[in-house]
C-alpha cells in the first residue's frame, strides 16, 4: 500500500478521467443563499448536509474545531463576512453537535501531546511568554448549547455583519436531528 497522498492522487486521476466530477458542477455562489459554520467532526461530513437537504452548490460551509467563532477578527469570522458580502449569503447557521471533541478539551493534556509529537517544551514556553495564552486558545467548552449561543451572539453583534438572520442549532451526530437553539428571525440588531 502506498502513502496516503499517492493513493489519493491515483484515485483522483481516475475520477477526473471518468468525468465523475460532472454531477458536482456548480458556481461559487450558494443557491440557497446561506452560510453554515459547523464542526469539522467526521460524522458530519455527509450527515449534516443530508439532514438539511443541502446539495453541492447550495451553501457555503465553514468548518472549524467545535464550530466556534473564537475571535471577532479571525479567519472564521472573515469567512462568514466574505460569504455574506462577496458570495451572496443572506443568512448564517451556526451548528454545533452533541458529543463534540471540543467539549471538555483539556489544554494541559493537549500540551503534553505536543511534546509527545516532537514539539520542544522550550517552544511552548516561548509561545506562552510571547503572549499566547495556550490555556485560553486551546480551551473547549462545557455546554454545546452555550457555545452555539456565544458564537451566534458574536456574529450577530459584529460591526461588519449586516442585519440578517443568524441562527443557532445543535445536531445529533447519530441521527441528524436538529434542535433550534436560536432562531435568527426573532432577533435583529
Task: Give a brief outline of the structure.
This protein has 189 residues and is of the alpha/beta class. The protein contains 7 helices and 5 strands; from the N terminus they run αβαβαβααααββ. It has one domain (4-105, 140-182): 3-Layer(aba) Sandwich (Beta-carbonic Anhydrase, Chain A), CATH 3.40.1050.
Task: Describe the fold and architecture.
The chain is built from seven helices and five strands; from the N terminus they run αβαβαβααααββ. The chain has 189 residues and is an alpha/beta fold. Strands 2-1-3-4-5 form a five-stranded mixed β-sheet, with helices on both faces. β1, α2 and β2 form a beta-alpha-beta unit. The chain is globular and about 50 Å long.
Write the layout of secondary structure elements.
Elements: H1 4-17, E1 34-39, H2 44-51, E2 59-64, H3 75-85, E3 91-97, H4 107-116, H5 121-129, H6 134-138, H7 144-156, E4 166-171, E5 178-182
Parallel strand pairs: 1-2, 1-3, 3-4
Antiparallel strand pairs: 4-5
Mean pLDDT: 95
CATH topology: Beta-carbonic Anhydrase, Chain A
Determine the N-to-C terminus distance: 56 Å
Principal-axes geometry comes out as: globular
List keywords for this structure.
5-stranded mixed sheet, Beta-carbonic Anhydrase, Chain A, alpha/beta, 189 residues, 16% strand, 7 helices, 5 strands
Amino acid at each position: 500500500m502506498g502513502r496516503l497522498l499517492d493513493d489519493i492522487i491515483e484515485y483522483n486521476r481516475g475520477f477526473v478521467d471518468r468525468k465523475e466530477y460532472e454531477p458536482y458542477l456548480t458556481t461559487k455562489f450558494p443557491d440557497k443563499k446561506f452560510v453554515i459554520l459547523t464542526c469539522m467532526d467526521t460524522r458530519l461530513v455527509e450527515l449534516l448536509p443530508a439532514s438539511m437537504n443541502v446539495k453541492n452548490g447550495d451553501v457555503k460551509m465553514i468548518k472549524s474545531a467545535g464550530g466556534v467563532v473564537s475571535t471577532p477578527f479571525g479567519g472564521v469570522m472573515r469567512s462568514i463576512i466574505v460569504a455574506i458580502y462577496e458570495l451572496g449569503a443572506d443568512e448564517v447557521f451556526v451548528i454545533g453537535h452533541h458529543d463534540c471533541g471540543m467539549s471538555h478539551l483539556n489544554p494541559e493534556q493537549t500540551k503534553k501531546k505536543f511534546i509527545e509529537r516532537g514539539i520542544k517544551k522550550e517552544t511552548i514556553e516561548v509561545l506562552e511568554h510571547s503572549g499566547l495564552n495556550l490555556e485560553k486558545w486551546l480551551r473547549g467548552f462545557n455546554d454545546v448549547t452555550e457555545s452555539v449561543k456565544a458564537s451566534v451572539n458574536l456574529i450577530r453583534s459584529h460591526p461588519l455583519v449586516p442585519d440578517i438572520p443568524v441562527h443557532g442549532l445543535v445536531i445529533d451526530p447519530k441521527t441528524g436531528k436538529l434542535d433550534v437553539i436560536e432562531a435568527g428571525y426573532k432577533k435583529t440588531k
